Automatic annotation (TrEMBL):
UniProt-listed PANTHER family: PEPTIDASE S9 PROLYL OLIGOPEPTIDASE, PEPTIDASE S9 PROLYL OLIGOPEPTIDASE CATALYTIC DOMAIN-CONTAINING PROTEIN
Species: Nitrospirillum amazonense
One MF term in the entry's GO annotations: aminopeptidase activity
Keywords: Aminopeptidase, Hydrolase, Protease, Signal
Coiled-coil ranges per UniProt: none
Keyword flag Hydrolase: yes
Secretion signal span: 1-24
UniProt xrefs under Gene3D superfamilies: alpha/beta hydrolase, TolB, C-terminal domain
Name of this chain's protein: Dipeptidyl aminopeptidase/acylaminoacyl peptidase
One annotated GO biological process: proteolysis
InterPro entries, sorted: 6-blade_b-propeller_TolB-like, AB_hydrolase_fold, Peptidase_S9_cat, WD40, Xaa-Pro_dipeptidyl-ppase/CocE
Peptidase S9 prolyl oligopeptidase catalytic domain span: 448-655
Amino acid sequence: MGLKRAAVAALLMGLVTGMTDATAAETKTAAYGTWASPITAARLAGSEIRLGDLMVDGGVPYWLESRPAEKGRFAIVTPDGKGGIRELTGTEVNARTRVHEYGGGALLATGGRLYFSNFADQRLYTMPEAGGAPQPLTPEGYRYADCVAGTPRHLYCVREDHSEKGEAKNAIVSLAVDQPGDAGTVLFGASDFVAYPRPSPDGKRLAWVAWSHPNMPWDTTTLYVADITPQGLGSPTVVAGGHDESVLEPQWDADGTLYFVSDRSDWWNLYAWRDGATRAVLPKAAEFGGPLWNLGLTTYALTGKGQAVARYAAKGLDHLAVIDIKTGAARQLDLPFVGITGVRLAGPDQAVMIAGFADATPAVVSVTLSTGTHAVLRRPAPESLEPALVSRAQPIEFPTTPGPDGQARTAHAFYYAPTNPAFQAPVGEKPPLLVKVHGGPTSAAKPSMDMSVQYWTSRGFAVVDVNYGGSTGYGRAYRNRLRGTWGITDVQDATAVVAYLDKAGLADANRAAIRGGSAGGYTTLAALALTKVFKAGANYYGVSDMESLAKDTHKFESRYLDSLVAPYPAGKAVYDARSPLHHLDGFSAPLITFQGAEDAVVPPAQSRSIVNALKAKGVPVAYIEFEGEQHGFRKADSIIRAQEAELYFYGRIFGFTPADTLPGVAIDNLK
């Protein structure tokens, strides 16, 4: 089970105090939660610059950066050769696609040109990499993502057709780049969803991934290959997948071998396919892939010289290795990264990627493969924290509810101790605890430094980021724990960690709050409705009524609940039993809820319903809805308001006065 509880306590208690004997005289004694912190909500919002869609063309990297100060706009940038960056688009461009609503794969850099989806109209645009006025390529009514170059005259793309009423149609299309107004020619549309159109180096074959309702891409997908003909595609050949196997990330090597990631061994590992035969490249109890929430996910790159540079996750931590793809021999690189995404090749001995660090904000980095050294190309939020102020993630494994077979089980989390060198707590006081629940729910918490976590720890809160059963990074069997048990397994794990940390002396169970967004918001509501463990909760655009969500959500997730809960409508009774809205009698702890007014994933009605019901019942409740926000807040003003409101809320509920000057929040029914 990893470290025993006593060992965990011994290891972490020094972090809880945040000081040594030498510094004790220099610190102030103040109750947890009241510590003054230099990490303001405005500073936090400034750090919330997201990096994504890293591409390389001619050895030059290009990527997207979100701009909270510009209402969350995504800009296309590249290094300027002087240690900075050059933005290639004006403020009128927001390079973000809405395919699957979660997007991803909005940018392509190839042949000296950029191709990107613009959020406002979802049309595909192009412009020279050197800069210039973007020109529209496609008509309105269609969305595009995950495009790759075919020939100099056309692209292969994932297209989502919204030109007619009813459910959108997803397909692999060939798009003529020299024919503005072309919506694309459908090459494959025989499934509900598609991803990863990848032509072979000789241009004669196309590989792609497809799946259909009720599966999600981490459940069952199929990898196809077909000949490219003047008429389109020949008869497809199934390479892998098809039943309880998640196959992702096909890539062709220069010799015509097709590589892909599959979880057929319980772990997402790397495989090779050639002449109808498949072999495992490097069997390992580690995850070389991840959940395809965003299109264009890349966790490995082929060098073309018999090697792959690959990210893999083991026990929640990411690593980078150089693999001989013929023999499977691997060399792990000694790098300070704890999170890695967007792996690309920039040269024969050079890779680029987006890296997360334990003590610094995410950055675009380059890695020299032969030496294992790295350089930071861009850290959008460069303002560093004093090392003594940083609370580093400590992985923990804790006992949770036994499985259906009665066997003992453990779950995983990352614990962050309250840390601020300027303060110490009164002797004997344990810190209030924030249990953070990630979204998805098929996703994972990572130990990369997150300023939104440091905001709390620097004020005297302990934070635990739970990778409950169902999370990725621990194999398919762990991921499948949530099948049919959403609202049960996740709640059990979120409550079990409170007792574990309280007994270890690392948190105060009497001041435990739970917070989460989207699926994490649902777990927050379910935990408040079905248990008495938490004394407060913060729900960010979470699900309150499962049946309503099954009836009213976007195509990508419209059958997701079939596996997480039960097939609908046959399982209506299960939906009612798991819906917090149907368990109002169980609520007593105060709740604050935040919601985007334009959320198409979890519509505002979900939040409004539970808030109004609890208000009528007499439960202390607060509600803030943000105009112009969708699923997840991207505007600086929204981020600041939500963070400060949540801190104010906890201060009122737990009876402490934050050091910050905060705008008030109307909390109904609070005496």
